[in-house]
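Figure 6 in text form: structure in, sequence out.
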């Protein structure tokens, strides 16, 4: 099955599953509202890890967005969102197809150096990384960084997440020196642009802590994890996934150091 035929099949499935007349009737503002509702619903389901429900909502959003035109930015946004659901479900081929279609629409309608294009490139890179296709992922991340630098300027906060992704890519390949360089760049950007107790600062600290752990530098890893955990606990609820992750990763450091009682106290 060719990629183009498969995309047509996916979109046709949406039309068969949902009543297209529901989208064609009503005013443009009604159709816009309906599309937004599907997108918001899909986002909520993703956050709840109800991926099958998220997929259905995003498929509905795609069908709704088709009524706005084949090159409408809302169709690209819907396809990008659907791709994230496929990605998290492990349906990598379907995810790549939708990411690529979203990228094409955005490049056509908004130009190749657009913030949405950069987001899509980052998503594609993460998809390739998850499949071990590191050589395909790196140029996409670097292109996203270049777009963000042209749009916002060097060292802008918008670049921090892309730097995180590039650091993660290098870490996955055990290229720890290169990973540390970009993680430090991300941290410097966030510390300059944000308050010291912003959760985004904790994200960079956590990445560096994980890097130190991989290098067997447990004392440094503990210090960084503690800083990240302190920020997250102040800003987020105790049940937030970021807090849970920090507790789990700090406990792992303690276990490597033989501090089992302290590790257990964090994971009760």
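Output sequence:
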């Amino acid at each position: 099955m060719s990629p183009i035929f498969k995309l047509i099949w996916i979109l046709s499935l949406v039309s068969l599953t949902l009543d297209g007349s529901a989208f064609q009737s009503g005013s443009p503002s009604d159709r816009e509202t309906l599309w937004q509702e599907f997108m918001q619903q899909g986002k909520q389901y993703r956050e709840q890890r109800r991926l099958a429900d998220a997929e259905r909502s995003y498929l509905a959003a795609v069908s709704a967005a088709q009524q706005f035109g084949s090159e409408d930015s809302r169709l690209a946004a819907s396809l990008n969102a659907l791709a994230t659901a496929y990605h998290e479900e492990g349906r990598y081929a379907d995810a790549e197809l939708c990411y690529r279609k979203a990228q094409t629409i955005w490049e056509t309608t908004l130009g190749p150096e657009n913030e949405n294009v950069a987001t899509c490139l980052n998503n594609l890179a993460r998809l390739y990384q998850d499949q071990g296709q590191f050589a395909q992922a790196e140029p996409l991340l670097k292109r996203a960084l270049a777009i963000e630098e042209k749009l916002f300027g060097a060292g802008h906060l918008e670049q921090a997440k892309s730097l995180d992704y590039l650091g993660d890519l290098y870490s996955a390949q055990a290229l720890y020196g290169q990973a540390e360089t970009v993680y430090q760049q991300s941290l410097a950007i966030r510390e300059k642009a944000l308050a010291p107790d912003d959760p985004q600062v904790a994200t960079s600290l956590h990445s560096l802590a994980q890097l130190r752990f991989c290098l067997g530098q447990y004392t440094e890893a503990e210090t960084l994890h503690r800083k990240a955990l302190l920020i997250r606990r102040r800003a987020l609820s105790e049940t937030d996934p970021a807090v849970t992750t920090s507790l789990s990763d700090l406990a792992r450091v303690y276990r490597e150091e033989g501090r089992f009682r302290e590790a257990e106290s964090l994971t009760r």
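Caption detail: The two ends are 50 Å apart (CA to CA).
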